[in-house]
Amino acid sequence: MTKKKDIEVLRVTHLRGPNIWTYRPVIEAWLDIGELENFPSNLLPGLYERLTAILPGLIIHRCGVGEHGGFLERLRDGTYAGHILEHVVLELQNLAGMKTGFGKTRQIGENTGLYKMAFRTRQEQVGRAALAAGRDLLMAMIEDRPYDLAATVIDLTDLVESVCLGPSTANIVDAATVRKIPSIRLTDGNLVQLGHGARQRRIWTAETEDTSAIAEGIASDKDLTKSLLASCGVPVPEGELVTSAEAAWEAAQDIGVPVVVKPYDGNHGRGVSLNLMTEADVTAAYALAARKGDSKSVIVERFIAGNEHRLLVVGKRLIAAAAGESLWVTGNGKSNIIELVDDQINTDPRRGTTEDSPLNALAPEHGAEIILELERQGMTAYSVPQDGQKVLIQPNGNVAFDVTDKVHPQVAAMATLAARVVGLDIAGIDVVAADISRPLEEQGGAIIEVNASPGLLAHLKPASGEPRNVGEAIVDHLFAQDESGRMPIVGITGKHGATMASRLIAWLLQISGKKVGLSCADGLFVNGRLLPRDGFTDWETGERLLLNKNVEAGVFEASARMILTEGLAYDKCAVGVVTDVSDVEDVAEFHIASLDKLYGVLRTQVDVILPSGVAVLNAADAQVVDMADLCDGEVIFYGVDEHLAAIAQHRQDGKRVVFQRAGSIVLAQGYDDAASLPLSPLVPPEAVLAAIAAGWALGLTPELIGAGLRTFDANPKRTHH
Fold it and tell me: Quick one: 97 exposed, middle or buried, by C-beta within 10 A (0-12, 13-18, 19+)?
């Protein structure tokens, strides 16, 4: 097959907010499929078979047919390379563990071979890499060449793991999304903002902005934690802090063997040795603990028989609990301990080295603890146990077996008390007990540690038992049920009067007592103070307002060009204003050559209005009027002429309108005039009408709106109009 049959990627744009394709971030690629324009899939012999063989997951793609197998039906009947590439890229992202499903492909012009293709991605780097790999894979299938899919999926999966949110943070963000709370990732790591402006809350994996540094400091000081817990009646094991092996053995004798030896400042169970009976064991365990911790201080404490459990407390509630297990191997008379561990423990499909594995594979970093355990049994890693001989490898290994429903109410109460004593809003409480369904006092159980920033994965993906939606509990802890984390946002788009209207809306909100952020063609303002743009794009400038904890309401002007190149800066708005659909010159380079196509761009502003929100639309522009049907919320029409068809019909339907009558502006509901305000001579009437309608939509009173009109400075020093 000639190389004329190729797919060339002409332009790639990451649209970071709501856009002409969808209300979520997408990558838009402009494609030239060249000669392939003459070869739909049904004219490319064997393509269907090769593509479905290498990507069997394509069968669940619904495509335009709207049902399971829809895309394969299109592929069999004949569809074009741009559309096929869209589905290949989506499937590669799915195989890499980043689930996505939305894609669209549209031809630019007729018989040109040029297409715009958009696909959903949760992370730009992954999306771009999947696009490049997808193009290579599709061309290999078209040209009947081999393609190493396994290597591609490994590369993409590695990229997902390195640049996407970790599973614990992602679970919290997903729970926020279910509650329609917006989120913004603040770093390349797991620091995330939930909500906007003054209503935001921040999380860092399992820490929140309510997690105090003092509480974290107490939790990292195991000795202090124990003394505080004991003073509040929480059962803890007796113990001593020591700084030498000799002192460790002395402490063990004072406490009474068996004992536990662990680092004073360790975590994740590293350097912990259990059930120690002899001086030799204690001395070796001290050396291990001192090496694994950040200081030479080591804790010696009474050994408590039983299994280790991790109880997750969020706020004042126990949310989840997981139990540990002891790891044993059984000898066969031939294999040494290393071989038995690999054959009997590491072959468990639940074990691995990635975050997706609920259980850890035993690896060299666990070696010191395992060697000590074996030495106490008179063995080494190279010993060959007899046939049938059971050998303990690791007491209390992974704490990853769900036991939430078994926890006794008194144990749950002790765990929540422990979290409060330390001062943590989210805590992992380590409990040792023979039976978690009985009170601790009954069985000599105890709380041995309180952990800040606990891992959530054991509860999200337990090795056995029911997964727990801990993200939902954390979001419910941060936001009351009637809170959405949203501040009032007004979005405005159009060519004529949009900037002036946005400034007037911001002023009305400001005099209502709110700290207001304004992003418009005149600049970036917070409560009227101009901030430097510092080279930020329009989208980035808008996002700065969403990040600002002082901002209580936001007004965002978006041009058609911004929607096409970056998307809107916010996900949803309370009020969306469209002034007009006119002038395609600014966006001609995007193949937007008609007002109908411009309508398709500017409608984005109406698509993102919340169901509880309001669209403010210019009744004098027929295409703007047509957008009313797209709005999930209420519509207010405005216009200079009260006899405009849209205003007349709206009044007949008993709905709200704003119009000019003689020298005044009338706010009316149906045929009832709600208020009449004087017309400002300094501001174009359409801009005033749009701003008044938006203020009314936001619940501002006519009296306050009138005061705003009288005090608005239409010509400050820095304006473009």
Answer: middle
pTM of the model: 0.86
First to last CA, the chain: 58
Distance between CA 563 and CA 539 in Å, rounded?
A: 9
SS3 call for 450: strand
Q: Quick one: which H or E segment has residue 149?
A: helix 149-163
Q: DSSP assignment, residue 461?
A: S
Structure confidence by residue, pLDDT tens digits, 700-719? 999 999 999 999 988 776 54
3 state SS for 333-385: CCCCHHHHHHHHCCCCCCEECCCCCCEECCCHHHHHHHHHHHHHCCCCCCCCC
CA distance 51 to 35: 20
Superfamily of domain 489-711: Mur-like, catalytic domain (3.40.1190.10)
| Separation between Cα atoms, residue 399 and residue 409, nearest integer Å | 20
The 10s digit of each residue's pLDDT in 608-623 is 999 999 999 999 999 9
Residue 381's φ and ψ, nearest 5 degrees, are -65, -20
* pLDDT at residue 203 greater than cutoff 50: yes
Contact 340, 407 (CB under 8 A): no
Q: Domain boundaries in the chain?
A: 8-163, 238-298, 307-467, 489-711
**680/75 Cα distance (integer angstroms):** 60
d(CA 564, CA 604): 10
How far from 339 is each of 221, 281, 359, 381, CA to CA, in Å? 39, 25, 19, 9
Fold topology of 238-298: Dna Ligase; domain 1 (3.30.1490)
pLDDT band at 399, cuts 50/70/90? confident
Give the tens place of pLDDT for each residue, 217-253. 999 998 899 999 999 999 999 989 999 999 999 999 9
Token pair for residue 36? 């392939």
Distance CA 558, CA 561 (A): 8
Mean pLDDT of the chain: 90
CA dist., res. 538 & res. 559, Å (int): 9
Asked if omega into 167 is within 30° of 0 (cis), the reply is no
Q: pLDDT tens, 543-575?
A: 999 999 999 999 999 999 999 999 999 999 999
